[in-house]
Inverse folding.
């Protein structure tokens, strides 16, 4: 845990008191916690957040990356996340170069219905080599933007990327201007996502 990191606070199970809906632990594994995304693009938009304070997914141990893959595969069987439509998106930043990340703590966005936007930055940002299993995603990749769908994966060089670049570009494609999660937290959509997960857990 890192003092002052908001995501460290969110994933800390020792935190007492009533959590806001956006901090709800929807699902958990040894290395990750799934929480609703603030400023969700759509109902079901969640983030996979590392329990440990690690800057980006590429910096995690290989076993943890495989655990992440297994988690995404498991979520694809749950009904809310048809794998053929899911977009995984991460700003892989470091403290020295954030690569567009607001917080340098692993948080991969899982966005239902947008898998066809995996090519979001083709011809915009330089491409880096990565396989779809992420086996060759290593610490030297950062700063990067990672996008993955059922059909393809993209790893882009994100040096000097602007803050929330993924959200800005996605919302532009969608013809929306509410890209800033801080200004448009989407509380009602967050609540709907939490209710859907609770219904799944009851089932």
């Amino acid at each position: 845990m890192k003092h002052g990191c908001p995501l460290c606070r969110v994933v800390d199970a020792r935190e007492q008191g009533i959590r806001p809906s956006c901090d709800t632990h929807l699902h958990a594994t040894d290395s990750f916690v799934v929480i609703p995304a603030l400023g969700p693009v759509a109902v079901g938009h969640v983030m996979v957040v590392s329990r440990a304070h690690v800057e980006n997914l590429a910096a995690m141990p290989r076993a943890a990356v495989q655990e992440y893959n297994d988690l995404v595969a498991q979520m694809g069987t749950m009904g809310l996340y048809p794998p053929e439509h899911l977009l995984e998106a991460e700003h892989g930043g470091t403290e020295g170069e954030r690569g567009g990340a607001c917080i340098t703590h692993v948080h991969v966005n899982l966005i239902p219905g947008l898998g066809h936007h995996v090519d979001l930055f083709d011809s915009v940002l330089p491409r880096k080599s990565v396989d779809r299993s992420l086996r060759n995603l290593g610490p030297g990749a950062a700063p990067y933007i990672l996008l993955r769908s059922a059909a393809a994966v993209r790893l882009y060089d994100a040096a000097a990327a602007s803050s929330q670049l993924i959200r800005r570009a996605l919302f532009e494609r969608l013809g929306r201007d509410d890209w800033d999660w801080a200004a448009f937290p989407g509380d009602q959509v967050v609540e709907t996502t939490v209710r859907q997960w609770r219904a799944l857990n009851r089932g």
